[in-house]
UniProtKB/TrEMBL annotation:
Keywords, comma-separated and alphabetical: Cell membrane, Membrane, Transmembrane, Transmembrane helix, Transport
Keyword tRNA-binding: no
Positions of the Major facilitator superfamily (MFS) profile domain: 25-207
Signal sequence segment: none
Regions crossing the membrane: 21-41, 61-79, 91-114, 120-137, 149-171, 177-197
One protein family per Pfam: MFS_1
Organism: Paenibacillus silvae
Name of this chain's protein: Major facilitator superfamily (MFS) profile domain-containing protein
Localization (cell): Cell membrane
PROSITE patterns in the record: MFS
Keyword Repressor: no
PANTHER family: CHLORAMPHENICOL EFFLUX PUMP RV0191, PURINE EFFLUX PUMP PBUE
Bilayer topology term: Multi-pass membrane protein
Length: 207
């Protein structure tokens, strides 16, 4: 407990010396959340195309969302606990690389069961991401700005629901669902570069 308090005080002392609010860094976290939510929900708008392409019913195609949710549920608490001591940026990058790999598999695979496995592990990446995003954002700013930092980092959720999913569904009807997931992978590559360029690293937390 004392080491955690000392760590927070050290972060605050370092951050208080900088007056700039870290918009660019926090928006990178917002994009990570955007990709996380879009990866989860986007299949709901593309079920007819997915089902037809893979030769399954729409009910079976809908299991893409179920497996993602199960992966998130099973990973959120145990993996967040197991990785709490890891440095923050490498862990965040690992989650984002997970989205890149599993969305790419989803875009390319014609095997239903393989795609379900990819969706499950994409959900695992999401579970870890959800467990660390708010705390990561809070550590970028002094105490007085922690609420604002969390709001900026988490705005990826309403943007994904209000804009990303409808736009992805609309474009998927004309370009095909695989191209949409491919575009999501390309967006993830951009995010990886953004994280390496701007987002600061922090130590993990003690048990």
């Amino acid at each position: 407990m004392n080491s955690n308090i000392a760590l927070v005080r050290k972060d605050n002392a370092e951050l208080s010396s900088s007056k700039r609010f870290p918009w660019i860094e926090l928006l990178a976290l917002a994009m990570a959340v955007f990709i996380c939510i879009l990866t989860e929900i986007l299949p709901a708008g593309l079920l007819p195309q997915i089902a037809k392409d893979l030769g399954v019913t729409e009910a079976l195609a809908g299991q893409w969302i179920t497996l993602y949710a199960v992966g998130s549920l099973l990973a959120a608490i145990p993996l967040t606990t197991a990785t709490r001591g890891w440095r923050r940026r490498p862990l965040l990058l690992l989650c984002i690389v997970g989205f890149l790999v599993f969305n790419t598999i989803t875009a390319l695979s014609s095997v239903y069961m393989l795609t379900l496995v990819a969706r499950f592990f994409a959900g695992v990446s999401a579970g870890v991401l959800w467990g660390m995003t708010a705390g990561y954002a809070r550590r970028m700013v002094p105490d007085a700005q922690k609420g604002k930092a969390m709001a900026v980092a988490m705005m990826g959720t309403p943007l994904a629901l209000a804009l990303g999913v409808p736009l992805g569904t609309f474009l998927g009807a004309y370009t095909g669902w695989r191209l949409i997931f491919g575009a999501l992978s390309l967006l993830t590559v951009v995010l990886i570069g953004w994280l390496l360029w701007k987002v600061p690293d922090f130590k993990g937390e003690t048990a």
